[in-house]
Amino acid sequence: MSERYRRSEEFLKRAEAVIPLGSQTFSKSKTQYPHGVSPFFIERGQGSHVWDIDGNEYIDFVNSLCAVTLGYKDPDVDAAVRAQLELGVSFSLPHRLECEVAEKIVEMVPCAEMVRFGKNGTDATSGAVRIARAHTGRDRVAVCGYHGWQDWYIGSTARNLGVPQSTRELTHNFAYNDIESLHALFRQWPGQFAAVVMEPTNLFPPENGFLEKVRELSHQHGAVLVFDETITGFRFAKGGAQELLGVTPDLATFGKGLANGYALSAVVGRADLMRLMEEVFFSSTFGGETLSLAASLATLEKLQKQPVIETLYSQGRKLIDGAAERVARHGVGHILGTAGNPTWSFLLIRDAAPYSQWEIKTLFMQEMLARGVLILGTHNMSYAHSEADIARTLAAYDEVFPMLKEAVDGKRLTSMLRAAPLQPLFKIR
After folding, report:
1. Where in the chain are the domains?
2. How many Å from the N-terminal Cα to the C-terminal Cα in the chain?
3. Which architecture does CATH list for 6-61+308-416?
4. What is the pTM of this model?
5. N or C terminus: fewer CB in 10 A for the chain?
6. Are 313 and 343 contacting, i.e. CB atoms less than 8 angstroms apart?
7. CATH class as words, domain 75-305
8. For the segment 169-202, what is each residue's pLDDT rounded down to a tens digit?
9. What is the CA angle 402-403-406, rounded to 5?
10. Structural contact between residues 141 and 129, judged by C-beta atoms closer than 8 angstroms
11. How far apart are CA 264 and CA 287, in angstroms?
12. Regarding beta strands 378-380 and 344-349, do their DSSP bridges make them parallel or antiparallel, or are they unpaired?
């Protein structure tokens, strides 16, 4: 047992007795953090930093999987939640905050004419698919990116255990920046697609008018275009990637950046489509829970009044440019690369013979965590990340990148690992 992570490892054993994987979320579980060199439980957060159950402090570049945009314990969000807590949390009729937050989203998001709330991104994307199927009378869905755990999507991935074969057969993948791959789906199943659901951008930006072509092709074949902006929303721009990239979908879904870590998601879009929600059953007891709505209103107002997005870009650009410069300077381009938007950028870890990317990632995480940087391979920026955070992270890269080169080029990786290598969950990007 690691002394640094003793309490984490002890508590993981306790949690595993009552919780599958010891976590509610695959991407926060032991599947993503190598045992013996990682924390498994966070105790508290403040700004851009978190402290694990053993008291170790980290600069956090996971930020609850991009859900924390402003930083932990943001004073404006906390004040709004405390004020609402004095009035109540869940009621027997709707609360005015439902309308006020919906109005704010309509004000900010290009495609939003009406809004319905859920709790997770999966709620919203599943709601959007149900609307599209109701509108078109069709069943098939074309997807590009990650869209949550519900049957309609996850059945198309390797994590399809428990999903009926008939459901799996209705979802089809196409490749980003490859319009022909979407053409091929429409040709193979003409007149059968209800929706095209996609992340408007992730690893790479659209090229050669890709999004415009997707929209045109979708409409040409009578399919509803849905942008899954669970991550890009209220991060890439105040109105999401659709505002940044200038392409307006029929429907869009939002989640992580909507309430700075509070549980809230939304499906939004054209009024004629959204009014189908009066017949399509999309209903939950906690969709109008007021603490998350209060957090959302405070978050969105702060995005409008303060240079939040601009800061995410400027600080994120320093980090990703610094990482790219160090990849070149330390001669690890055969092992590492960089991609993505400055607000959500990727340190790409490649297979480098004789080692897999998962073995290399395990060493990378082992050494970054030891240096007090909580990272899975992406830089999920928050408004709270400081110049000192960036400098410290880049200094850690100056130490860790040469270690990766030594491990791979010197065929020493196995001996340098103090943990079993990670195993892939499934490939989505």
Report:
1. 6-61+308-416, 75-305
2. 34
3. Alpha-Beta Complex (3.90)
4. 0.95
5. N
6. yes
7. alpha beta
8. 999 999 999 999 999 999 999 999 999 999 999 8
9. 85
10. yes
11. 8
12. antiparallel
Cα-based distances in Å from 143 to 217, 233, 429: 14, 18, 12
Answer whether 308's CB lies under 8 Å from 280's CB. Answer: no
Q: Which residues pair with 52 in a beta bridge?
A: 42
Please give the structure tokens belonging to residue 370.
Answer: 């030891």
What are the tens digits of pLDDT across the range 215-232? 999 999 999 999 999 999
C-alpha–C-alpha distance, residues 404 and 374, integer Å: 18
Question: What Cα–Cα distance (Å) separates residue 51 from each residue in 56, 72, 366, 380, 396?
Answer: 5, 11, 17, 17, 18
Residue 282 CA from chain centroid, whole number: 23
Q: DSSP alpha helices (H): ranges in 148-285?
A: 151-154, 165-168, 179-188, 210-220, 241-245, 271-274
Residues in the chain: 429
For the beta carbon of residue 14, count every other beta carbon within 10 angstroms.
10
The alpha-helical segments, DSSP class H, found in 112-229 are 121-136, 151-154, 165-168, 179-188, 210-220
